[in-house]
Amino acid sequence: MSAPSQPAPRRYRFGFVLTTTLGNLTRYVNLRKYAERDPEIDFTWAPADHYTPPEMPSRLRFLPAPLFMRARLLQQAWPVLGRLAGLDAVMIHLFEADILCALRSHLRRSPLRVSSTDEAPITDRGSYPLYPNDLLKAPWRRKFRLALDHWRIQRTDSFVPFSRFVADILVRDCGAPPDHVHPLHVGMDLELWQSTPKPETAPGGRMQILFVGGDFVRKGGNTLLEVFQSRFQDTADLHLVTKQAPAKLPEHVHVHNDFIPNDPRLTRLYSMCDVLVVPTTADLGPLWVFLEAMAMRLPVIGTNVGASTEAIRHGETGLIVKVGDTQSLGDAIQTLLDDPSLRRRMGENGRALIERDFNASINVPRILAIMKSAVNRGMGR
Length: 381
Fold this sequence. Notes:
Layout: E1 12-19, H1 24-35, E2 41-48, H2 65-81, E3 89-93, H3 95-104, E4 112-115, H4 132-135, H5 139-154, E5 158-159, H6 164-172, E6 207-212, H7 221-231, E7 236-241, E8 253-256, H8 264-272, E9 275-277, H9 288-295, E10 300-303, E11 318-321, H10 326-338, H11 340-357, H12 360-379
Parallel strand pairs: 1-2, 1-3, 3-4, 4-5, 6-7, 6-9, 7-8, 9-10, 10-11
Helix pairs in contact: 1-12, 7-10, 9-11
């Protein structure tokens, strides 16, 4: 008599509400690609973009602009929000959706709520890399948002922030349980971002400097232009990957304004340049562009803000300068342009760091394992 067949193990049911605005689109694409290779999980995805083209028809157009944007975000998130009762866990990287799920958690504790974000509550304005819109907010709005953030954190089951910088704020300043906070970046898709050692620039040839940044001013584009024009215009070319480049630019500045995430043209541009320079004034980081550059064995120069130093190891994978310090920025660029062996060594160190710590094929399964473990504990598995 044959033994009775065992029932198939129950599959996990995970939902993901993730913003896809700007650099977050790459994060979503990489997470989804490697997550869907897991045969134990049924996935429901809700990517949400903060930008709605003016020509796109919508029944929500009657709303004032700020309300329209938030309503559109919730509309995009609804494939997951409308199915919460059938999910084991939901990962959220969208403020509006997180508020709704936190409210719902007062009635039902399932599904488990997993927060995954590059931001943390602004508990200390003196050390936090404030964006321009944060600087303009009235004191009452800042206090209200901080209270709201503390409330959301209390209603969150698990945290997978992009960086240790954010994780430290959550634990130290916001009271999140340390064993519920797992800093882990989704990482790069190294099946796409493959590189070979870069050939040396021919003697007397012009060096190639690269800047990549959507928000040109906040990412320090004007600062870099100033330094380039005063010190490097005669010996180097500057490539600006941005849609916000100024109309009037110095000679030997080249603008690339139509790249998309994981664009092979951007990969080639990284391969032909000698150094990436993004002297950002406010970012939580680590920036995707630093990871992309290091994946392509390119040394990088950034500023001492947010979690930048988690990717840019000063003197090892690149150089760190103070925000707005044009003299130090110019000296850092000069140091790398003058020393081919230093560029090569930093490029190799950067690639090794990406393969070890920022590799999507490794990190995405680790993220899913964190979610599975939280669900297992809740179900007593």
